[in-house]
Amino acid sequence: RNMSSAGPEGRKKMRECDGLIDSLVYYIQGAIADHEPNDKATENCVCILHNLSYQLEIELPDTYAQSIYMQRRNIPSNDKTPGCFGTRSRKVKEKQQDIPLPEEKSSPRGVESLWHSTLIRIYLSLIAKSTRNYTQEASLGALQNLTAGTGPMPFAVAQTVVQKANGLPSIRAMLHVSHPTVKKTAVSLLRNLSRNTPLRSDIAREVLPDLVSILPESVPVSDIVCETAASICYTLYNLTQSNSHSARLLLSADGLPKIIAISMKDSNMFSKASRAASVLLYSLWSHTELHSAYKK
Questions:
Q1: How deeply is 257 buried, as exposed, middle or buried, from its count of CB atoms within 10 A (0-12, 13-18, 19+)?
Q2: Given pLDDT bands bounded at 50, 70 and 90, which one contains residue 268?
């Protein structure tokens, strides 16, 4: 576990070690099957996999990168790729939906297992069944790492989490735990998921009211709460920017007073959350049909 956090070279060597990742996955599967998701060894295994999934898309060996991204080269690149804040262009939305997803192997080995749907479902199972904060945080963090990029692999993982494995209810439950780091990681994962245009309506329907409910009533008082509030605002930005129905959902959940309160503090310590809240307000105002509701 310590070695897996030693940097890029350490991660590379561990990913290349024959049988290591397979053994970790095998152990966790056994723990879940035996209804023992809370033992320390399971926590260690998940934390190692979490670390090995960090920067995975960038650090993939050439052979995997070529097989995963080969089809993508055939996509015409006339339109700009959507960034963190997306775009309202219909063409870009269609393009994002047309990205060919990497083919899954029925029996993945080694590094292939790190983004395979089997392990994604294991993470979601641990999030739902484990009561160890470190295990929950590492499972959420691994999914956060895997959904952090902009290529076909992160999009495929996001689609598996939201649509194929029905993972949103388990992630939503983590928004209401008392442990601040688990909550922060759950929000960061949702922020990554919300960058995928085709998944936004599902995410908004499932978790938007919960995100609003955990926003602080006023300016956050600690760094970690401040970062969490900023991530919530950017997630809400992604969900509402081109969807007036989601903006109305935010309004009906009494989110506007909270967002205004957070946006009005401009001290350096809280500028991250205030800036994010201001960006969200600016985007909400672009829904002109809601202006009268906002004013009320």
A1: exposed
A2: low
